[in-house]
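User: Quick one: structure for sequence A, then sequence B.

Assistant: Sequence A:
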Amino acid sequence: MRREGSPFQGLSAVFVKELADHVSSIRMLMLELLIVSTALAALYEAISRLRQTTAEDPFLLLRLFTIDQAPLPSFVAILGFLIPLMAIGLGFDAVNGEHNRRTLSRILAQPIYRDALLMGKFLAALATIGISLAALWLLVIGLGLLFLGVPPGSEEIARSLVFLIVAIFYAGVWLSLAMLLSTVFRSAATAALVSLGIWLFLTVLWPMLAPAIAQAIAPADPRYALLGLNDPATAVWTQELQRLSPNDLFGEAMLAVLSPTTRTLGPYSWISSAAPSWVRRSHSVKAS
């Protein structure tokens, strides 16, 4: 049986309904309070530290996102930890919740295809996260202007906007995973546990396993160990394996966007002209 009309017929109705449900839900309110309270604590520490910095710093606003002060991590590090929780919290019961409430068959009985239903739910949840992150971004800009008294430059605004876009894409990755698991598992609790398990594995365990796997794939040259250096081949494998984690990719993207002085994200930044000649030759051969 061939479908008639557009596969996305009814997408706008699903989007508006789901967006209204997310914005007014207690779950979303609690997630927003968690993110805002934690982020404000990190911003307070960053502002307290930056107020002692001279206004000659051309990227003073960007440092609000990246500066950390013990015991709190930076604003970006907190978002890298909490954005997946928000995305999983909005997506783990997107489909199986409708099935358990016995409303899925009623929705699909309307002139709405599965494509429109899934896309509408995804876009509504992503728009909800985007609105929250945009409000948080405006809060950071406002607090920076209020307490630092230094207006941001055009490059700072552009880089902070790129940060916002990358953060929304980062949320979309975890939201897609949560919605996929919500279609695979009938139980919302199972989907939530599996989503959180994958997140914990990729965020906490994988960075510790990647160096060991890289060492097994490309054993380090003992000459580097004698000099107290890392083998470039092992470093490349470690970095590539760690990039399988969305959290690591998000961290590298934030480093490139919010740190204008960053020139490379590769593993070869430790190579200098003071290194022995065989080290530089090995580096150039393996890099080529």
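Sequence B:
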Amino acid sequence: MANTVDLSTHPETAGDDTYKGPPTAASRPRERRRAHWAEGHSRTIISPLELKSRWGSRIYWTVLAAILSVFTLVFVFPLYWMVTGAMKSGEEIAQMPPTLWPKDPDFSVFADAWELFDVGLLLKNTLFYSVGAWLFALAVDVTAAYALSKLRPMFGNVILGAMFATLMIPPIVVMIPAYITVTDVPIFGWNLLNTPWAIWFPVAANGFNIFLLKRFFDSIPDEILEAAEIDGVPPWRVLVSIILPISRPILGVVSIFTIVMVFKDFVWPLLVLPDSEKMTISVGLSQTAGQVTQNQIMAGLVMASIPMIIVFVFFQRSIMAGLTAGSLKG
């Protein structure tokens, strides 16, 4: 053991306690040897040397491509099956084993489904409900998150904890109390069935959206707000003129989440909007399910999916940027 070298005191690997001062011309080779030693001793599943080798690089990219292909197939195949199923005949849909591509694609089924389901009216209703819910959600969630993050009211942590507790409750548990509240609003006694308010009010306060917004507002330096306070700017003006312009990424994420939630919801609109003229598209497509063929139902589902696919294609970068925004301070 006489030849054992203590790396903690070795001049080439010693920490700041042994070696101090900026690197000079004489110490640069020693700094390079230290960096080379640290690189050679990094612990990874595949070492950089093996990854740069001929077979290591091939195996790595083959495994990566296989994993990505499997996950892409799992998520995209249901959508592909829905689109191709809409172009098949009823006999071909029931055929066993099923065909991956229709033998005689029929595109006229989309026009038939548009008229049969009155997709135009259903899309208009759903868009109206989504925009209204979006405006109410921004008004309530942004002000609540701003108050909890920057104004710090009394018992703010208790209120925040209660909001987080709502995330642990399954939505189906509170559906009956929510329905009773909508049919007979406390104090006022209003009946909100078959009105947009039955959709807008439950969506307005969302604990998850408030959590996302508060995390982002926490990352905004307090010095900016203190400077505005010194200039005599009221808190509501700080929110409108300073906080909101900075928070566009997270506002985009909350907006997308709210619109998608209203657009895809089925059970709640089915309960509070029984009128056929005021149904959302998810409910409207289910009402004539026993009177139409399977390919017409699939064609209606394809047309109902197009708006959300367009939203995802155009705003996927905003979704990822907004989810990571505010996660790191500084």
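DSSP finds 16 helices and no strands in the chain. The radius of gyration is 29 Å.

User: Thanks, that's what I needed.
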